[in-house]
Design a protein that fits this description.
Layout lengths: L6 H6 L13 E2 L10 H13 L2 H12 L3 E5 L11 E5 L14 E2 L29 H16 L1 H27 L2 E2 H18 L11 H13 L14 H9 L9 H14 L1 H9 L4 H34 L1 H18 L7 H6 L1 H13 L5 E6 L3 E4 L4 E4 L4 E5 H4 L3 H4 L13 H6 L25 H18 E10 L4 E10 L9
Parallel strand pairs: 1-8, 3-9
Antiparallel strand pairs: 2-3, 4-6, 5-11, 6-9, 7-8, 10-11
Helix pairs in contact: 2-3, 4-10, 5-6, 5-18, 6-11, 7-9, 9-11, 11-14, 12-18, 14-18
The structure holds protoporphyrin IX containing FE.
Length: 504
């Protein structure tokens, strides 16, 4: 880690790497991996079925009185050859996962198992590459160049290809059925929007409508080991589901015909993008598989979780927050918009909307897990102690615990506080928002593993809030859990009455 990369850690204790800070006691990392094969399966069943995610980690924190401990992580046998990890669950120890001078992030994108490269045309795509691998630099640079070349299309495309379509579908479903399944609509519409935003052509524009269903199967094959309570809803016993989803990889040939259609679409619609790839020295074929992954897994997979999560928090916050957001959005559009529409300038004025987006990304990071291997021996610090980590050991962070750390975010760290990031004091906390696998105050580079689409994600999330409250004064929704994140059924929408000024 360069000496000023994480100044908030260093301000407190500017210590040389291996030297013990004066106040922190050095301790053995508590916890054990138990009996091989048996304990990993017990841990897996606890995690998925008997305790649940949060209780699984909280019970170990309580048992060891430590936010750093040894445990097995899912999915375990036979999916993962080695389930043993060192968990880092507080805001002090978690950033070790971003420090590429101490950790390696080769093949750890999905954790202790890696889906077959048959699902990605035989390539290890960018998300699985460590920055030390030369192709990582080329592919990440290619993705940066693509996003830059398309940046002027994001806003108009979001408005017409996402917001207008989804809002009218929600309205008509609420009118005819009394409710609208937001997740289903989002899953259908978001993929088309991405095609337009990234390439100027959606799958339906090139006769490939319905491609998102093939993408969904391809995603499920990769993510099944992380899923639970899917088949149990169909009355399949828990142990049978556990065996089917978590013990061996589902055969990749299931996705083969769908992947061929995906490849054809990206190869055709993404032709201008592939020209950019050749300029950084990538073959069109490798670039196309990376384009598929970055669009369909990184972006589409992320938006399938992020947008329902954002809407769920907004629904739960109620009318008072809706009113404040509607007022802010309409005032900003009146003063900085164009023809009554959102512009980037108007978006910049929306302090509360910005804060709401950061707060959602903090409290419900769409990707909850991060993994890495220690590149060398080093001392790992939590708030209370320091621990010796040995080269080769696997580190694991459960982000919702690290970003709800009361020692950083105060007693209300576990609550959704819409204004948390408003004003100069709020801005200081952004360095602890880590959804992108790095601090929100930093930009991703080819030398790190921070999300290449960080700015795109924040932009579309803000646009979501702005477009929503430009159109609606308020709404209600029923929220439940889904396979990943929240399931949102919108039950009512109140259309915007006032354009600007006071909402009430
Ligand atoms: C809500 C949406 C998104 C979320 C939550 C998200 C989250 C993440 C996270 C947590 C990582 C680090 C994973 C790890 O190594 O442990 C990551 C990496 C990555 N993301 Fe995103 N991402 C999103 C959208 C995007 C978009 C729009 C792109 C578009 C290009 C993108 C491209 C990538 C790439 C290429 C990497 C690997 C970076 C590297 O190898 O250096 N992601 N993302």
């Amino acid at each position: 880690m360069s000496s000023n990369r994480y100044p908030w850690l260093q301000k407190e204790k500017p210590q040389p790497e291996q030297q013990a800070p004066l106040l922190l006691p050095t301790k053995e990392i508590p916890g054990s991996y138990g009996i091989p094969f048996i304990t990993p399966i017990k841990d897996r069943l606890d995690y998925y079925y008997f305790k649940g995610h949060d209780k699984f980690f909280q019970s170990k924190i309580d048992q060891y009185s430590s936010t750093v401990f040894r445990t097995n992580m899912i999915p375990g046998p036979f999916m993962a050859s080695d389930p043993r990890v060192i968990a880092v669950l507080d805001a002090k120890s978690f950033p070790i996962l971003f420090d590429t001078s101490k950790v390696e992030k080769k093949d750890v994108f999905t954790g202790t198992y890696m889906p077959s490269t048959k699902l990605t045309g035989g390539h290890r795509v960018c998300s699985y590459l460590d920055p030390s691998e030369p192709s990582h630099t080329k592919i990440k640079q290619f993705l940066f160049n693509l996003l830059k070349s398309r940046k002027d299309y994001f806003l108009p495309s979001f408005r017409s290809d996402y917001a207008a379509r989804i809002f009218s579908s929600v309205e008509s479903q609420v009118a005819s059925n009394g409710q609208a399944n937001f997740n289903d609509l989002n899953n259908d519409i978001a993929f088309d929007f991405l095609g337009k935003a990234y390439f100027g052509k959606s799958p339906s524009d090139v006769g490939a409508s319905g491609l998102q269903k093939k993408v969904t199967i391809w995603l499920l094959l990769q993510l099944a080991p992380l899923a639970s309570n899917v088949l149990t809803k169909l009355h399949v016993p828990k142990l049978v589901e556990d065996f089917l989803l978590h013990t061996f990889a589902l055969p990749s040939f299931i996705a083969k015909p769908g992947y061929k259609s995906m490849y054809d679409y990206f190869n055709t619609a993404g032709s201008a993008a592939l020209d950019l790839a050749e300029k950084v020295g990538l073959s069109r074929d490798e670039a196309c598989h990376n384009l598929i992954f970055a669009t369909s897994f990184n972006t589409y997979g992320g938006l399938r979780v992020l947008f329902p999560g954002l809407l769920a928090r907004l629904a739960q916050s109620g009318r008072e927050l809706h009113g404040r957001l509607a007022t802010e959005v309409r005032q900003a559009v009146a003063s900085h918009g164009e023809n009554g529409q959102v512009t980037l300038g108007a978006l910049e004025q929306m302090e509360l909307a910005k804060s709401v987006v950061y707060e959602v990304l903090r409290i419900d990071p769409p990707v909850e897990f991060q993994y890495a291997h220690a590149k060398k021996d080093f001392l790992l610090q939590s708030h209370d102690a320091q621990f010796q980590v040995r080269k080769g050991e696997m580190l694991f962070g459960y982000q919702p615990f690290a970003t709800r750390d009361t020692r950083v975010f105060g007693a209300n760290a576990g609550e959704f506080v819409p204004d948390r990031f408003v004003g100069p004091d709020g801005a200081k906390l952004l360095r602890y928002v880590w959804w992108s696998n790095g601090p929100e105050t930093e930009e991703p580079t080819v030398n790190d593993k921070q999300c290449a689409g960080k700015n795109f994600v924040v932009l579309v999330a803000r646009l979501f809030v702005a477009e929503f409250f430009l159109s609606y004064d308020s709404f209600t929704a029923e929220i439940s859990g889904s396979l990943v994140g929240s399931q949102v059924n919108i039950t009512s929408l109140t259309k915007a009455k006032a354009k600007a000024g006071n909402f009430y």
